[in-house]
Recover the amino acids of this structure.
């Protein structure tokens, strides 16, 4: 199957939406597998995964049927009444992680998961400070944005709710200097997403773990983007063998349905009690059905193996045209380009291939669905070769 060259010029549909997103020049009317279709039947290969969420691709039968069946059976919404499907989703997620977490708090967005993780750490330690890593993105709520690198450009709140310091990536000496007896938590994306698929590596993450132990701080892995299979392992924590005290995850978790989770170790879980955390939509039955369906498909269709194999194929074949290096893990990859990434993005979209950008202007980011195959990568390689 081939991508379609897009017609130019493009007129975005006029509407009353807040004008806060730059619009790519392609309107999506429908989607199937790894393909997006425009209103006139144009076909675009989605290597952006609908903002890293479409783990199973579009129109996945098992996921769609699970969502419809749950909507028919019961869409009742509150955590105050027990539901089998919520308990099952939590248990399956804990088992899938392969890590020693004791409980799961289900929420609806990555920022919400991070906000709760930070709050628990500050509360548990009664300390005023959080350390984060340069380049990090953790979300747009007051706490999550406080630990987001460069958020001053849009933060808006008059002050941050706690003291924050940022550590340069990979700098082991800076860890000792910035993570101290005043530090409640260190929050880190093991593979930074928005920064451009920057893999912080097992050594650096293990050093953070050791320093947190020394000073009594909690380690939070933000795996909103890199987690739930995108690294080719269930979580990057699994991949690197470094166990955080808390792990947040979202995006791929519901395959596009808003589902996020905060996983907590036994030590953190022991501090949880009634009334400490809350949410309206988190843990709703349709959210849980989508999470279970995503897990079921990842396991039964051996999608983690697919991510690892096709990721290696991208690394092998896509060092062509303007691409000078490939970084990242699994299906969170950054192509370093010899020309501004924005130009490459626009030229690829003209050829019917959607890719992401990054805060690094020299990186094109790939976040494809886990079902991507070598034949799709060949389309990318051929398009890149012609640029
Ligand atoms: C690593 C990371 N953390 C947190 C967030 C925030 O997630 P959400 O947009 O679901 O609030 C994102 C979103 O891109 C992210 O990539």
């Amino acid at each position: 199957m081939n991508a379609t060259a897009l017609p130019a010029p493009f007129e975005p549909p006029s509407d009353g939406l807040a004008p806060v997103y730059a619009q790519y020049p392609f309107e999506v009317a429908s989607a199937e597998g790894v393909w997006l279709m425009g209103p006139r039947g144009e076909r675009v290969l989605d290597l952006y995964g609908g903002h890293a969420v479409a783990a199973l691709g579009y129109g996945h039968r098992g996921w769609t049927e699970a969502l419809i069946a749950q909507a028919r059976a019961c869409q009742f919404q509150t955590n105050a009444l027990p539901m089998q499907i919520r308990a099952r989703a939590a248990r399956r997620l804990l088992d899938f992680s392969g890590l020693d977490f004791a409980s799961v708090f289900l929420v609806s967005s990555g920022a919400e998961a991070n906000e709760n993780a930070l709050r628990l750490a500050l509360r548990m330690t009664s300390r005023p400070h959080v350390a984060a890593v340069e380049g990090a993105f953790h979300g747009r709520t007051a706490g999550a944005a406080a630990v987001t690198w460069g958020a001053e450009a849009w933060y808006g709140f008059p002050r941050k709710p706690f003291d924050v310091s940022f550590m340069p990536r990979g700098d082991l000496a800076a860890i000792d200097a910035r993570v101290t007896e005043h530090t409640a938590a260190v929050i880190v994306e093991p593979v930074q997403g928005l920064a451009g698929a920057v893999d912080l590596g097992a050594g650096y993450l293990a050093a953070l773990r050791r320093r947190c132990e020394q000073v009594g701080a909690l380690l939070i892995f933000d795996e909103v983007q890199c987690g739930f299979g995108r690294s080719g392992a269930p979580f990057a924590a699994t991949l690197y063998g470094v166990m955080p005290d808390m792990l947040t995850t979202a995006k791929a978790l519901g395959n596009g349905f808003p589902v996020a989770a905060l996983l907590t170790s036994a030590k953190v879980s022991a501090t949880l009690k009634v009334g400490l955390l809350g949410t309206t939509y988190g843990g709703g039955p349709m959210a849980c059905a989508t999470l279970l369906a995503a897990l079921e498909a990842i396991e039964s269709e051996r999608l983690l193996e697919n991510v690892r194999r096709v990721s290696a194929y991208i690394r092998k074949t896509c060092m062509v045209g303007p691409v000078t290096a490939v970084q990242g893990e699994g299906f969170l990859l950054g192509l370093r380009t010899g020309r501004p990434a924005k130009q490459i993005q626009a030229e690829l979209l003209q050829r019917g291939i959607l890719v992401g950008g990054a805060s690094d202007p020299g990186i094109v980011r790939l976040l494809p669905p886990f079902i991507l195959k070598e034949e799709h990568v060949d389309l990318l390689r051929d398009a890149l070769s012609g640029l």
In short: The two ends are 21 Å apart (CA to CA).
